[in-house]
Write a structure and sequence with these properties.
Elements: E1 6-13, E2 16-21, E3 24-28, E4 60-62, H1 73-82, E5 87-91, H2 95-101, E6 108-111, E7 116-118, E8 124-129, E9 151-157, E10 160-164, H3 172-180, E11 184-190, H4 196-200, H5 209-218, E12 221-227, H6 239-249, E13 254-255, E14 263-267
Parallel strand pairs: 3-4, 4-5, 5-6, 10-11, 11-12, 12-13
Antiparallel strand pairs: 1-2, 1-14, 2-3, 7-8, 8-9, 9-10
Helix pairs in contact: 5-6
Length: about 270
């Protein structure tokens, strides 16, 4: 079990991370199902590291937004069945997706930007808006109730502060929001970027490796783990480019490139 000021972190592929902190196991955007195209061929470049039915324990499952590589009922429903005490945290507009799928309402926590959710063991989850579908705008997409449909999560407790960005662009508003919660000990940032070809195929992009490094430079972050670069062949990037950008722009900042399934131990 991690000690105070320590977290165990496993990379589950794409933007998925498993974090053990303060004795609680938390899943961030972990996807354990296959993705097949119209031809029936898997779009994944590697199989899931394990099946959702095999999960031994998970206290909280966090889904940053309603895209299939972040929130997928093929992962969530079998996971919920074999782990009846697991709670699910989703942006408020997506609560109905889990309800309609049969997950009990008492197990679903609705996340809203600017609101804190108190988890067990002294952990606090802070939601920040993500700008994912509105490129080059400093305002995320909202539903009819004014709730953001895409979020990033800051997890604070046990002497640590961890940020999982979800899918987002870097905007002045995001930088300002993160500075309010700084310093951050660790940040998990997507680096897959975008291009015209993927946009034409309705593949929404993300922070590029260069902007991720610039975000690390702009905000007090101790260590960055890049992600969202490996699972889909048409939506990938080389983490070596991120490493090069970090060396050039902020060589004083730490980063770690994870292997699939690797356990990384962060100590403050």
């Amino acid at each position: 079990m991690p000690q105070k000021g320590e977290a165990y972190i496993w990379f589950a592929g794409q933007h998925g991370f498993i974090v053990n902190i303060a004795g609680k196991v938390i899943y961030f955007d972990v996807i354990l199902n296959d993705f097949t195209g119209k031809d029936g061929i898997s779009r994944r470049t590697y199989p899931p590291p394990f099946c959702p039915e095999e999960i031994q324990r998970v206290d909280y499952v966090l889904c940053s937004h309603n895209h299939g590589d972040h929130l997928n009922l093929q992962t969530l429903l079998p996971l919920a069945k074999v782990n009846p005490k697991t709670s699910f945290v989703v942006p408020a507009p997506h609560r109905k997706i889990l309800l309609e799928a049969g997950i009990d309402e008492n197990r679903i926590l609705s996340a809203r930007a600017g609101e804190d959710i108190n988890l067990n063991s002294g952990l606090t989850l802070i939601s920040v808006s993500a700008v994912h579908t509105r490129y080059v705008q400093d305002e995320g997409e909202k539903d009819e109730n004014g709730d953001y449909t895409a979020l990033g999560f800051i997890l604070k407790g046990d002497g640590l502060s961890l940020y999982h960005a979800g899918d987002t662009w870097v905007t002045p508003g995001l930088v300002s929001a993160l500075k309010k919660h700084a310093p951050l000990d660790l940040a998990m940032l997507p680096i897959n970027g975008t291009d015209w070809e993927r946009t034409a195929e309705n593949c929404i992009g993300n922070v590029s490796y260069l902007d991720a490094a610039k975000l690390a430079r702009a905000v007090p972050i101790d260590l960055v783990i890049p992600s969202h670069y490996d699972m889909m062949a048409n939506n990938s990037e080389s983490p070596a480019k991120f490493a090069d950008a970090m060396y050039r722009l902020c060589p004083e900042k730490r980063f770690h490139i994870s292997a699939l399934g690797e356990r990384f131990i962060y100590r403050k």
